Amino acid sequence: MSTPSFEIAAGRSRRSGLLLVCILVFCVLLLSAQAPGGKSHSSLLQSWILSASAPVGRAVSLVSRGISGLADSTAEAFSAREENVRLKRDLAASNRELFHLRAEVSQAARERLLLAGGAALPRVWMAAPVLLVENRAGAQSALIAAGSSSGVAAGSPIAVPEGLVGRLVTVGATVSRAQLLLDASAAVGARIVRTQELGVVRGDGRGGMRLNNVPTTSRVAAGDAIESAGIDGIYPRGVAIGRVASVARGGNLFLEIRVTPAARFSQLTDVLVLAPSPAVAGVAGGGGSAGP
Amino acid sequence: MKFGRVALLLLAATALQFLVGGSRHRAAWPIDCFLIATAVVARGGNSSRAILVGGALGFLEDAFSQQLLGMNAFAKAALGYVLAVLSVRVVFGGAWAVGGALAAASLVNDAIVAMLSLLLLRAPPVLFSREALWRAAATGITGGILEAARVFPWRDWWKRRLLRRLR
Lengths: 292, 167
Hints:
The complex is a heterodimer of chains A (about 290) and B (about 170). Chain A has about 290 residues and is an alpha+beta fold. Chain A has one domain. Chain A contains 3 helices and 12 strands, in the order H-H-E-E-E-E-E-E-E-E-E-E-E-E-H. Chain A has helices spanning about 1-35, 45-115, 280-285; strands at about 125-135, 140-145, 155-160, 165-170, 175-180, 185-190, 200-205, 210, 225-230, 240-250, 255-260, 270-275. In chain A, a hairpin with a 4-residue loop joins strand 4 (about 165-170) and strand 5. Mean pLDDT of chain A is about 80; it is low at about 285-290. Chain B is about 80% helix and about 0% strand. Chain B is built from 7 helices and no strands. The model of chain B has no long low-confidence stretch (mean pLDDT about 90). Chains A and B meet through helix 1, helix 2, strand 1 and strand 2 of A and helix 1, helix 3, helix 4, helix 5 and helix 6 of B.
């Protein structure tokens, strides 16, 4: 009586083992086909999956924003009076500051004219809401509700008013995936504003960044602002990246510099999509996935 | 578990992942909804279904977050099988056991993805970061609470409550 049931159980176990092997082999083959150096790219499949999941993402995002908006407005109602007093105080201080600043405007305008020749200010393409932020094993990415239907192209940098956030790597019809600067594979050409020295900012995959390739002879100090240098052909020049958190002498010729990001990655809700650099726009030309 | 329920579970896991991941407070309780959904199917003891659901959810997660499709699918299919085998062969019960298994599964998922990233993309391995540990803890606690809610005798509790009121 127990033998047939044992055989059935063994058969099921064998079948599921076989299924597992098939799925794992399929995954390995798929991964090998996509790995850098392979001939085929799955970015099309990835962009299809992104487009197919877009309605769910948008609907849930609307609900989520509605709930958090309701919670925020309730909380704000309680703090409105204190905020009013504070704002009046701030306004008085701002008026005083405005008086001084007006005097400096003419001088600043002259300086701006001088700088305009060398500056390459980024052009903001559009603002887009963030649908999802994921981080796993060093890969830090975000889904944003903008795609090829709104004219967005792979390789476009994304930013918030505080600073640079990352770049789009896979573009679907209405949803795109962005690689954040915190990603362990992300890198951006950077300049230390005070000393004008160049380096490469890399994400550490753990929520921080490092500034590499700065020689030990550098005068960089904690608190120095770091901005994009525009030398990598991806990110525009002059956008804030962060501030130097600590400087230590490494074992080799370069300093070990930790950077605190300017953008608050943990609280991303909307981003600005910047126009891609001419080099990237020429290469991407569609929904392709650019490597790090 | 029937096919309709599995489909509903997939949809709910995706919606919940968007709800948590799209929120401004996403770092407060970063549960791995896809892993919990895989574990729910694996809890039924059907390893084939657990493998398929884990693989499907992994693919979805890869599309959202990874450069290559298949990393999370590989990890979650394997974890679905292991969790299903554990739930059938081992006396696997109680909120603590399920929570612990889910927390461990979350870390193993991270480790597999990190290893595949290192092999295929030469990406620096990031293992057991603070976020990963917190996600494992949140996923484990959530799984433990769900298991406790599943085995709790709600009907008896409700009857007892009614009786107490009548007295």
